[in-house]
Write a structure and sequence with these properties.
With 230 residues, the protein is mainly alpha-helical. The protein has 7 helices and no strands.
Length: 230
């Protein structure tokens, strides 16, 4: 009976890893679709999001069954509850990748991203995919140190997001209002996607330690040393 119980717990973790891998692939393919105006690929990304939704529903059903039948306590309860929250983050990440693909479809056969911002959007897409790959690794390994690194990695996404706005606010912007809106939305999609990847990693920290990641990081901050002669 206990073996079956722990197999169910493990299956929840496996479901989370599969969700992370699917939404990681989705953001990479959506980025290609938006930059290349690839309608077929955009449609594939949009359709594939249904599998992510199905996985979330399956995971929720397993978690609710465990809560009802096994009434887990302590660490096991933390695993179930935290997994439900992670599945919500991952499902939302899939939605954001789908939004990128839908914008590619909306603007087809034109390109939503002007040539001078191509490299920035490409970098944002690649970074988003790397962050989600790290989040998947954190789910598998329960590596707290790696989980805490994701927030630092997310700083690069915030910088890219600011770079987009610098282009939009530049007096030399010549691509019109519609493109400005598209770029603004894209920047927001990638920035929020990265935030969800970080949130997944933070939830793993809580799952492993019982402490929130922000509390652990603040505890590790060292006071500034006195400069000699100051």
């Amino acid at each position: 009976m206990r073996d079956a119980y722990h197999e169910e717990l493990d299956s929840i973790g496996d479901g989370l890893v599969e969700m992370a891998r699917l939404v990681g692939s989705a953001i990479g393919r959506a980025t290609t679709a938006i930059l290349d105006s690839d309608l077929k690929l955009a449609e594939a990304v949009i359709e594939a999001d249904q599998r992510v939704d199905e996985l979330q529903h399956e995971l929720e059903a397993r978690a609710i069954t465990l809560l009802a039948r096994q009434q887990p306590v302590a660490t096991d309860l933390r695993i179930v509850v935290t997994s439900l929250r992670m599945s919500a983050d991952l499902e939302r990440s899939g939605d954001l990748a789908q939004h990128v693909a839908k914008l590619a479809r909306l603007r087809y056969p034109d390109r939503a991203v002007p040539h001078d911002l191509h490299a920035t959007i490409l970098e944002m897409g690649q970074l988003a995919q790397r962050l989600m790959a790290k989040a998947a690794e954190v789910i598998i390994t329960k590596d707290v140190d790696l989980a805490l690194q994701l927030e630092q990695d997310d700083d690069a996404m915030d910088l890219l997001h600011r770079t987009l706005f610098q282009h939009l606010m530049d007096d030399r912007w010549k691509h019109g209002i519609e493109t400005a809106v598209d770029v603004t939305l894209l920047g927001r999609y990638y920035e929020r996607y990265a935030d969800h990847a970080v949130a997944v990693a933070k939830r793993v920290v809580y799952l492993v330690t019982g402490e929130h990641a922000d509390d652990l990081q603040s505890d590790n901050i060292q006071p500034p040393t006195q400069v000699e002669g100051a």
